[in-house]
What does this fold into?
Amino acid sequence: MSANAKPSARPARPYFSSGPCAKRPGWTQDVLKDALVGRSHRAKPAKARIKTVLEKTRTILGLPEDYRVAIVPASDTGAVEMMLWHCLGERPVEMLAWESFGEGWVTDVVKQLKLKDARVLKSDYGQLPDLGEVNFDHDVVFTWNGTTSGVRVPNGDWIPSKRKGLTICDATSAVFAMDLPWEKLDVVTYSWQKVLGGEAQHGMLILSPRAVERLESYIPPWPMPKIFRLTKGGKLQEGIFQGDTINTVSMLCVEDAVDGLTWAESVGGLNGLVQRSEANLKAIADWVSTKNWIDFLAENPETRSCTSICLRITADWFSSLPAEKQAEAAKKMVSLLDAEGVALDIGAYRDAPPGLRIWGGATVDTNDIEKLLPWLEWAYGEVKPA
It folds into this structure.
């Protein structure tokens, strides 16, 4: 047998993309057969289906009773920017960034809203900023889990329960895979296409009473696009949080979201989802611990993501290559795995260091992760110099 023979076992579902992510196990298009297509999203049956998404979301996540949930336009990006445009400017703001999406929110605040009292706390890929430096008298904007760096905040202990500013958290690759401390979070955003494997374009918005108070007491000085408007006459538009969406939603996507949430209930709700994601991380961590050529991009084990699991190649021959040659070698590994049909879309994000990014969210079976790992070894052997 060749020293670098191909493994015999293959993942049953080679879908390890970090967004849109794998559908839940057993999903087929048949789950959409009863979708209310051709109906107004404001019709009673359609609105009832939308409210089912909101109710199941609230129950599975264990949200406090006084928190509000809504479907909003334009995926997680729309949800985040809606709240940046609505809430910021009332007080200084702390912007935390350790990967590309956090950097995007910095651009919004510094270059688009042009806030002069914005402080940026930034760190390189693989690290977190010093969370102890954050001033919670200010508003704070951060990602819970860095989708492109595989670095998450370890917990909510660094966020005080009593604070003057709002905490605005982009949690798109964390919700349903990590246990979030809701009492520490005033604004939480995410999209359907991550941990539950839903379809794209629609965002989700979760607001604390403190966030609602800000929305009703502060009028920003800049124009507010229609798809961002959550208030009218100085009051929250409560209908948005009861199934009346700002703009037209896809009833196909709504039906798919209901299916994903129903599946989440079947695997034990939030606890079951977290356990599935953590099992995927453990499988990769156990394997990495036996290898001398690959490691996590996240330097601190406590900050390793269990969803967007980012790996870097650490072999001396690889590290000695110029950056463009490192990128070529990593892309060749990704291409080989894609051509074999064993791992689709696992290249590192374009702005991240060269390497691999494997989605470990709850819709991915640990058995498929375990079958993938020998293929990573094979692909590495194919690109490693003789």
In short: The first strand starts at residue 68 and ends at 73. The longest helix spans residues 269-288.
